[in-house]
Every structure is written in structure tokens, then in C-alpha cells.
Amino acid sequence: MSELRIAGGKKLFGKISVSGAKNAILPILGAAAATDGKVTIYNCPDITDVYTSAEIIKELGGNVLFEDGIMYIDSMGINKTSISANTASKMRSSITFCGGLLGRFKEVSFPIPGGCVLGDRPIDLHIDGFKALSAEVFSDESGFTAKGRLKGTDIHLRYPSVGATQNIMTAACFADGKTVIYNPSKEPETKDLADFLNMCGAKINTKSDKIEVEGVGNLSGCFYSVIPDRIEAGTYLFAAAMTGGKITLEGITATELGEVYNVLLKAGCELKSSENSITLKSSGILSPIDKITVSPYPGFPTDLQPQLTSLLSLAKGKSIIEETVFNGRNRHINELNKMGANISEDSSFIINGVPSLHGAEAQCHDLRGGAALTIAALAAKGTSIIKDPEYIFRGYENFVEKLKSLGADIEYYS
Ligand code: EPZ
Question: Which of 53, 140, 172, 228 could join 29 via S-S bond, C-beta 3.0 to 4.6 A?
């Protein structure tokens, strides 16, 4: 059984750089399979999910080379349109290959995706979007097949799903005519995908309440660099807020952190931002936040909810977090309580801050929950064992090394 062993109670000091965004690179790799050329992507994070996406591209007949943070993709040889259950089971976001494959080859087959268990994760918005674009879709409990020549149309999303927006937007590049997606995802990673597609010859216009796509029929290769990872950045800032200390993150700005920056201020941290970095200083004494509601961008991101739960477990008072995006993103609660946190759950998480956490053995159940347990262990008094940390390595480049460089006493045993 693999584990992280952490001797907590050490303040974090130092400077680290923010990696390329996991939730930008993954849909971009999915869309790269829709181009009929060569794609070079800079600032590609060295994380497990990137290797899974590369495996899918090779399975489809493409070629990839990943070295020194640069991903080289040759999609010309892609000649398959079905994704295997084996690779799809490793990563939910493998579904974002579908829009591009459907557009480029007029068909795609996809099994029900796997990935982190965060509660219900239906794919109805993806399928409804493909149907709205005139694809014929056959689906059953094992997965779906979509096929046909796509026609542009107006699509009103009942929920601003990130993945569904990205799939529909990519497929619409190949549709006859114009597509307008109303109530789309506004996440920066969706905008990054649109910018990537436009570099490949797409005609996408992202507005505040809709995304307009003119069908262009095909996409060529390009050179691109992904945006920094705001979730990774928030995770390290939360860690320093909890342990106390002073850290600087290079390659991220307050604007890119958005609501997360405001929450850190409310929690009592001192923040300074320049045009390309953020410095956080914390005494380790944290203020509670009466109520925070997790919501789609520009709201507080669900991907930092577990880490915020850890942070508020040490605040001086009661906080409430309402998670409105994933109804099952709560498996870190019991694990945090094993470390002495006092968190209960009804329709929200009620967090009664405690003076300190203590070391314990805790189990990772998913990527962000694992990160939340790690930052709690860094602040806890004593030694903690975090089981199955490979979940964390799916989305955090050089996770252990970056924390060590900030002074953490952390070791990984595979
Ligand atoms: C993306 O997942 C991210 N993954 C998630 O990050 C992130 O938590 C999520 O967006 C929300 O921001 C990637 O970008 C690779 P959704 P996605 O479709 O696209 C419901 C991480 O830790 N829904 O916006 O799957 C769904 O049940 C990961 O980095 C439908 O009802 O998220 C959920 O309640 C975890 N029908 C809500 O929408 C659908 O067809 C949000 O899902 C699709 C989604």
C-alpha cells in the first residue's frame, strides 16, 4: 500500500512555480485528436492524467512525445473513433475526446467514464448536445455511440457543465453553419480551450452569456501554451495559510485566482500580488467564514472545496460550506475528523474550528480530497500517513518535491 508520511507542524517558506492547468490541458489534448495536423503544447504539466490522455491518442492511432514540459502530438494518423473502457475508466475527462472525434470523423463510441467518485456524474448534457447538433446517438448502460453530419444550432444548457460545454464547442467547429451555446461554462479552462481551437483555425467567440461557433469543417495543428493551474495555486496557498509562514507562487495572478483570493483575505491571510506572482503571509491564526457557497465560475470552485474544508477546520469559530456542484464531494470529511477536525454534514458542511489537528492515518478517496488531507497533515501536530496518494499525483505536478522545497517534512513510499 503506497503512502505519504508527513511530520506536521512546520511552517512553509519559499517560492515555487505554478504548473500548467490540469483542467485546461486535458480538454485541449482531447480536442487535439480532432486536428489533422501536428500540435505542440508548452507548459504541459507532468501529471498522471496527461499520460492517460496521451495513451488515448496513441490508442486512436496518433503519435505523442512528451519531454521537458512540451507535448508533441501528431493526429494525422488517427483513424479510430472508439475509446476503450480500459483507458476511459482511469479518467472521467476522457469524455472530452468525443466532441472532436464526432466532428472530425462523423462518429464516436465511448464507454461510461470512470475517474474520481464525486457523486452523480451523468453525461446527459453531452449526449443532448450532440443530438441537438443533429448527431444520431445510441446509448445504453455500457456507453454511447454518436454519428452523423453535424448542423449548427442554438443550444441552451440547463446547467453550465464544463465538460459538456467543451465537447459541444469542439464538435460545433465541424458543423455546417453557426452554433450558439447559451448558459455555457465560464471557467478559464473552457476559454483556454476556445483559444486553442481558434489557433487551430476555429472561429469561436466567447461572450459573457454565450459561446458562438462558426463551423469551419476541419482543424489544423498549432503551437499553444496552457494557462496556469489556479486550483494547484490555491492548494499551496491554503497549505501555507494553515501552517503559517510565507510563500510566493510564480506564474499566477490575483485575477486568475478570482474568488479564491478573496476567501484567503477573509480567512485572515496577508496577500500581495504582482503581474506574475502572489505572495501569502500567514500567522497560522485563521478567521472563520460564516457561509461560503461553492458554485460554477466565477464562484468559489468546487475543486478547492475539500482544501477549504481543511483550512476552516483550524479557523477560530464556525464556518459553513455549501457544495452545490458535486453531491458526493464529501469523502474527505470523515478522514479530516480522524485528524481531530470537528466537521458535521447536513445539506452543507458545518465546520467548528479546533485549536489544532493531530497526526493520523487517512485514506485518499479522490484527487482534491487527497490534497486536502495532505495540507491538513502539514498543519497537524505529529505524524500522519496518507494512504493511496497516487490520486493526488493525477493532478499535481511534482507534488512532494514542491512541498519539500517549501520546508515540509514529507516522504512518498510507493
Ligand atoms: C470538470 O469536470 C473538471 N474536470 C472537474 O475537475 C471540475 O470539478 C468540474 O468541471 C466543475 O468545475 C476537468 O476539467 C477535467 P461538470 P466535469 O460537467 O466537466 C452535472 C478535478 O478535481 N452534469 O461541470 O465533469 C454533474 O453531475 C476535477 O480537477 C450533469 O448533470 O464537470 C455535476 O453535478 C473533478 N450532466 C455538475 O454538472 C452532464 O452531462 C458539474 O459537472 C454533465 C454534468
Answer: 53
Report DSSP state, residue 346.
Answer: S
Give the whole-angstrom CA distance, residue 270 versus residue 288: 15
Both 10 and 77 in a single domain?
Answer: no
pLDDT in tens, 209-264: 999 999 999 999 999 999 999 999 999 999 999 999 999 999 999 999 999 999 99
Q: Can 116 be counted among the known catalytic residues? A: yes
* One domain for residues 235 and 329: yes
Smallest CA-to-CA distance from 367 within 398, 403, 331, 333 is with: 331
* Residues 6 or more apart in contact with residue 86 via CB below 8 angstroms: none
* Under 8 Å between Cβ of 97 and 33: yes
Vertex 172, ends 166 and 176: CA angle to 5°?
180
The count of domains in the chain is 2
What are the helix and strand counts (H, E) for the chain?
15, 23
Q: Measure the CA angle with vertex 272, ends 266 and 276; round to 5°.
A: 125
Q: Are residues 246 and 271 in the same domain?
A: yes
Atom 35, ligand 1: residue with shortest CA distance: 303
Domain end position, chosen among 172, 204, 225: 225
Q: Render pLDDT for 27-76 as a digit per residue (tens, 0 to 9).
A: 999 999 999 999 999 999 999 999 999 999 999 999 999 999 999 999 99
Final residue of a structural domain among 164, 198, 225: 225
Given a cut of 80, whether residue 19 has pLDDT beyond it is yes
Mutation pick for ligand 1 pocket among 125, 131, 325 (CB with most ligand atoms within 8 Å): 325
Query: Does the beta carbon of 408 lie inside 6 Å of ligand 1?
Result: no
> From edge to edge, which strands make up the β-sheet containing 409-413?
361-363, 383-387, 3-7, 409-413
- Residue 245 and residue 186 share a domain: no
Segments forming the whole domain that contains residue 359: 3-19+228-413
